[in-house]
Amino acid sequence: MSLMDSPSSISSCNYRFNVFSSFHGPNVRKTLLSHMRKQFNFNGITMFDDQGIERSEEIVPSLKKAIKESRISIVILSKKYALSRWCLDELVEILKCKEVMGHIVMTIFYGVEPSDVRKQTGEFGFHFNETCAHRTDEDKQNWSKALKDVGNIAGEDFLRWLVFILRAY
């Protein structure tokens, strides 16, 4: 299913959002994600916006609720994604929803190779090991399995995708 299908084809009365995005960093938020959000809004596709979490709300429960209330999660894997335990915890929750609820998970490899995500190697692996340094073995195992699983989901390589789009025009 393409995200550019009509909104009614991916909406459901059971879902508050069509799309939940998992990403790390202001560079992703201000570039790729802002363009995706603009295009989705133009096409009537609702996307959870973490900027909308009220200041008095707890963040983790709000994010978990948003994941469960979304039909699709788009995981934007950048070199620094694994620097954030928040992102890694989100990813574990996203994959639980995929298994239990049939949640659709799509991936975008944003400047990182899928094999580095799967194996936690290269710069991605370096950042993953930094995040794991003061965490439990259970956290590390859960995160490592989630990264292996999400790295095995056929996704889009952002640079190849961008070249394809630019050539189309």
Could you explain the architecture of this structure?
This protein is α/β, with parallel strands linked by helices. It has helices at 7-10, 26-42, 59-68, 85-101, 114-119, 122-132, 137-151, 158-168, and strands at residues 17-22, 70-78, 104-110, 156-157. The protein has a 4-stranded parallel beta sheet with strand order 1-2-3-4. Helix 4 links the parallel strand 2 (70-78) and strand 3 (104-110). The chain is globular.
Radius of gyration: 16 Å
Main sheet: which strands, in order across? 1-2-3-4
Overall mean pLDDT stands at 81
Number of strands: 4
Q: Summarize the main sheet.
A: 4 strands, parallel
Shape: globular
**pLDDT below 50 for ≥5 consecutive residues: which ranges?**
1-12
| Helical proportion, percent range | 40-55%
Strand content: 5-15%
What's the number of helices? 8
Q: Give the helices and strands as they follow along the chain.
A: HEHHEHEHHHEH
Write the layout of secondary structure elements.
Blueprint: H1 7-10, E1 17-22, H2 26-42, H3 59-68, E2 70-78, H4 85-101, E3 104-110, H5 114-119, H6 122-132, H7 137-151, E4 156-157, H8 158-168
Parallel strand pairs: 1-2, 2-3, 3-4
Helix pairs in contact: 3-4, 4-7
Record keyword descriptors for this entry:
169 residues; alpha/beta; 8 helices; 14% strand; disordered N terminus
